[in-house]
Task: structure prediction
Amino acid sequence: MICRVCDSTHLEPVVDLGEQPWCNNFLRKEDVGKEPFYPLRVLFCHDCHTSQLDFTVKKEVMFGDHTYLSGVTKSLSEHFRNIAHEVDSRFFVGQSQKSVLDIGSNDGTQLEHFQTLGYEVLGVESSKTTARIANEAGVPTLNAFFNRETMNGIGKQFDVFNASGVFFHLEELHSVCEAIKTGLKKDGVFVVQFLYMKSIMENLAFDQIYHEHLLYYTLETIEVLLNRHGFSMFDAYLAPIHGGSIIGFIGHRGSRQPTERLLAMREEERVSGCNTIEAYRKFDQHIKWMKQENLAYLGTAKKAGKRVYGFGAPVKGNTMLNYFGVGPDLIECLVEKNALRRGLYSPGMHIPLLIEDEVSEPPNIYYVLAWNFKKEILANNRALIDKGVEFYFPVNPKVSA
Result:
C-alpha cells in the first residue's frame, strides 16, 4: 500500500480492530447475518505521519445511500449555525453576493444556516435519500460524489467551500483537493471540519475508527495534504463537537498569514508527541484495556439482573460493539431518534433498534454509544436520571458537546 497523503510506502500497522462489517450497514431482518466483513486496521506513515486505513470499502457501497441525518441532533445543528455565522462575520460581512458549496452536505442542515445569512448555496451529497430530503427542504443539492469531474460540471467558483466531517472519508482524496482548488475564488475560504486524532487518542475514542473514516488527521498531517495542493491553513481551533474536532480555515497558498492561535496549536501538538508511532502504540494498548473494563462492567450488570439498552445507534458505536463482541445478550436494543432506522438491526452484532417512541419502559442502564453528545443527552434525560436510570458513558471525552 502507498500512503493516501504522500505516496510513501513506509507504513506500519499500529491498531487492528479485527474483521468488521461496514458499520453504517444497518440491516433489515431478512438481511441479518448476510453482511460482509472487512479488515479494520490503522497504519502509520513514517514519512508524513498520517494514520490511515489499509483497506477501502468502495465509496459507492458506503455513501451511495445511507440513513445518517445531520439535522437529528440539536447540538450539531447549533454547531453548524455557529460556523455559518463565524465564516460570514469574519470574511464576508457586507458582501452583497456570496456563495457556498458544501461537500457531503447530507440533509442540508449546514447550508440552511448559510441560506439564512443570504448565501447562494449548493450541496453535493452522494446519498440519494439524504439528497432528496435536502432538496425537498429547499436546499439545492446535487446527488453526486464530489471530485474534479463534478466540479467541472458545476462550472463556477464559490466564496466558501465547507467540508464537515467528510474530508477524512475521501477515497478520491487528491481529485477532491484539485476540485476545491479550481472552484475556490482567489480570496475564498475553505472550511474543513475533521475529527482530531490527538483528541481521539486522549479520549480513547477508538470507536471513531471505522471504514468510512479512511484517514485520521492532526494539524501536521492535514497540512502535508493541503500544501501538496497549493493550499495553506491560516487559522484553526478545537471545537467540542464529536468529542473534539478541528475547525480549520484554509486559503490559496500565501493568501493569508497564520494566526497566533494556529501557531500555538502547532507547537502544542509537537510537544504532545501525538504524531509519533510511540503514541499510536500506547493508544493500541489502552484500547485493549478498555475492552476488558467494558466487558467486565456489562457482565456484572447482567449477573445483577439489570436491563441494559444502548443509547443511540451512531455508526461509530458499531465499531465498539463489534470489537468488544457485545450483542443482544448484554445490550437488549439500541434506542435511536432517527426514524429511518426503525425496525433495523446493528451490523455484526445484530442488536435490534427501537425508535424513542417505541420504548414503553426504560432500562436500568443506558449504555451511551452517542457519547459525543453527552451534555445534550444528560440535559434531555434528567427525569430518567432522577428515577434512578444510569447513563453509562464508555467514552468520556475531555471536550464534549
In short: The CA atoms of residues 149 and 179 lie 8 Å apart.
